[in-house]
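Lecture notes, unit on protein representations.

Consider one protein chain, 279 amino acids long.
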Amino acid sequence: MATVPTITLNNGVEIPQLGFGVFQVKPDETAAAVQTALEVGYRHIDTAEMYGNEKGVGEGIRNSGVPREDVFVTSKLNNGFHARDAALQAFDQSLADLGFDQLDLFLIHWPLPGIDVDFVETWKAMEEIYHSGRARAIGVSNFTAHHLRKLHGETDVVPTVNQIEVHPYLAQDELRTFNAQHQIATEAWSPIAKGKVLDDPALLRVAERVGHTPAQVTLRWHVQRGDIVFPKSVTRSRVEENFALFDFELSEDDMREISALDRDERTGPDPETFNYIPG
């Protein structure tokens, strides 16, 4: 079984660079999907309150027989719970649903620029959670540089990660550089652009050259750039394919060819305008 490299976060916590995402995995399929991922070798699971499948994540880990302390688990604060007391209660509910005493990483899911509660208040609640020891690390998701500057100016704890949309069509080099300058690790969601990049002629050329699939090549590009990535699939063969990233390397020319595909194209919402609150 391949050894997945880890990245040391700014508070000393280590996170596996490759994980398993459960976005859009149905709640009743989540436990089996997580168990399969752990059997394949994953030791990092990324979920969120908004996904509605935290119970399945906890169940899958327990059913797998893998010790809880060997699995790095991330969840994210649901939109609509940004006020201090609501955020604290939502975190408690996440722990209860997962069946855990402690979460490895907890994120603010979206900055939500159009709501009344400033995300600075939310972050201060996250700091309370962190200082309580019930989350080993805290971070943000879908924050831009100006959001992060605001946090830096008004709060004490630097986020450990910023989970953002990143893929060859949205390389996010400027924001990734900003993250790195502030010792914030970049996590990449939608790493294969919902499959859009897999038919790109440049990726197909690189894939043929290195003898791996376009998905593996894309995920390897992320790994070599230093992104933390967590592809999602409920198909065991695809879960295994996505894990097999550590027996080959892309050349500098391969990396440049893939990076040149950047066209600032999102597959998901723009954090500057996204204000969705679940009903």
